[in-house]
Amino acid sequence: DAALPQFDVLVCPEAKAIPVGQALCNLRDVDYYVLRKACKLYMEEPASIDVRSITTQKDQKLWYCKKAASKYKGKRVLLFDDVVS
Q1: 30 near 8, Cβ under 8 Å?
Q2: Residue pLDDT, tens place only, 16-42
Q3: Would you say 68 and 33 are in contact if contact means Cβ atoms under 8 Å apart?
Q4: pLDDT tens for residues 48-70?
Q5: Distance between CA 25 and CA 31 in Å, rounded?
Q6: Where are the beta strands (DSSP E) in the chain?
Q7: C-alpha distances in angstroms, 5 versus 9, 39, 66?
Q8: In angstroms, rounded to a whole number, what is the distance separating the alpha carbons of residues 77 and 46?
Q9: Please, are residues 8 and 32 in contact by the beta-carbon 8 Å criterion?
C-alpha cells in the first residue's frame, strides 16, 4: 500500500483485477470503477476504449458508462490490472 501513489479512483478491467483492486480501495477508502469487456444493458451512454493486451491475440474494446465515469473527471486515476509484463 505504501508503494502506491495517491489516487482518488482506481480503474480496472473485469474480471481478475477486481478483487485486488477492491481490496486496495478499501484500504485507501476510495472508489473503484470497472471497465467491462462487453457493453451492458444497464449502461447509460455506453462508450468504449480500444486496447491491445499482451494476453490476447486480438485488439479488444473495454466498455464504460459515460454518465457514471464523468464523476471522476479531474480526479487522480490509478489504472490497475492483474497482469505484469
Answers
A1: yes
A2: 888 888 888 888 899 999 999 999 999
A3: yes
A4: 999 887 777 888 899 999 988 88
A5: 6
A6: 9-13, 31-35, 46-51, 60-65, 77-79
A7: 11, 30, 25
A8: 20
A9: no
Distance CA 32, CA 81 (A): 12
Cell numbers 464523476: residue: 71
Give me the mean pLDDT over the 2-17 stretch.
Answer: 84
Q: Do you find a cis peptide bond into 15, omega within 30 degrees of 0? A: yes
Residue reference for cell 490497475: 80
Residue 76 half-sphere exposure toward CB, CA atoms < 13 A = 6
